Amino acid sequence: MKAIMIEGLRYNYPDGTLAIDNISLTIEKQKKIAFLGANGSGKSTLLHHLNGLIIPQEGSIKIMGNVINKKNIREIRKAVGMVFDNPEDQLFSTTVYDDVAFGPRNLGYDEDAVHDCVNKALSLVGAKELQQRPPYNLSLGQKKKVSIAGILAMNPEIMVLDEPFSGLDPYSLEQLLCILERLYKEGNTLIISTHDVDLAYSWADECVILRDGKLLAHGSTQLLEDKSLMEKAKLQVPNLYSIFKDTPLRPKNSEEGRALLGKLLEKQSR
Ligand SMILES: Nc1ncnc2c1ncn2[C@@H]1O[C@H](COP(=O)(O)OP(=O)(O)OP(=O)(O)O)[C@@H](O)[C@H]1O
C-alpha cells in the first residue's frame, strides 16, 4: 500500500489565489521526501492537505488507502503528524509536558498511557529535561523539538514537517537531522518542505519540485542536478554538485565530499 496518493488536486484560497494546480503524486512508505520550490510555489498549502488541515476542493488524497474527507479527519491526523514551520502555532499549554500530552489526551488515552507517550516522545527528541518549562520561553530549537515531540506522542506513521530546519543553528540542525534519521530507521515516512537545495540533496530519497502550484518534477535527488529544471523552479543546483560536476565523484554531503577529495589527493601524491 502507498503512503500517500494525490490525484488531480487543485486548491483556490477564498480570495481566488490558485495555490495548487492539478497535482497528482504518489509517495511510497518509509521514504524521506523533500518538497522544494521557491516562495509561494505551494509547498505549505500542499503539506496542509496531507493531514486534513485543508480538505481537497477538487481531486483527492489517499493516506494509506483512505480517502481524506471531513468524516475521517481524526483517523487521518493519527496517521499523519504535522509539524508547522512556526512552533508558536503549535505550542499553547502552560508546560511542555501538557503540550506534548495534548495529542494523546485528545485521542482519549488514559493518564498512564499519556505519561508513557510523553516520556517516550520527549526522550526521542532529547528534551525530557524541559518537561516542566513553559513552552513560550524556550529557544527556537527547543520549541521545534517540543513541537516534534507533540506529534511523535501520537505515533504517526507519516510525519510532515514544514520548513523544519529554518532558523536552527548548526548544532540544533544536526540534532534534528539525527532525530529524523532515527524516525526514518524506525519505519516512518518523512516529508519536509524546504528551499534548501543543498540540504535536500544530502537528506532526501526523493524530491518533489513545485512551481506556481504545479508539480514540475518528482524523482530522485539527481533531479536537483538538472540546471534547466532548477532554473524553471527558481532554485539553484546544489553547491556540492557544482563543485564536483566535472569529476566522476558525486558526494551527497560535505563529509562524503571531504573523504572523496582526500582519497583523490592521496592518489595524486603517490
Ligand atoms: N491564506 C491565504 N490566502 C490567500 N492566498 C494564500 C494564502 N496562503 C497562501 N496563499 C498563496 O498561495 C500560494 C502558495 O503559498 P504557500 O504558502 O503554499 O507557498 P510556499 O511554497 O509554502 O511558500 P514559502 O516558501 O514562501 O513558505 C502563494 O501564492 C500564496 O500567496
UniProtKB/TrEMBL annotation:
Residues 4-237 form the ABC transporter domain. This is ABC transporter ATP-binding protein. It is found in: Cell membrane. Coiled coil: none annotated. Belongs to the ABC transporter superfamily. It holds the Pfam family ABC_tran. PANTHER family: ENERGY-COUPLING FACTOR TRANSPORTER ATP-BINDING PROTEIN ECFA1, HEAVY METAL TRANSPORTER. Part of an ABC transporter complex. Responsible for energy coupling to the transport system. Probably part of an ABC transporter complex. Responsible for energy coupling to the transport system. GO terms for cellular component: ATP-binding cassette (ABC) transporter complex. It is a peripheral membrane protein. Its main location: membrane. GO terms for biological process: cobalt ion transport. Keywords: ATP-binding, Cell membrane, Membrane, Nucleotide-binding, Translocase, Transport. One of its GO terms (molecular function) is ATP binding. The lineage of its organism: Bacteria, Bacillati, Bacillota, Clostridia, Peptostreptococcales.
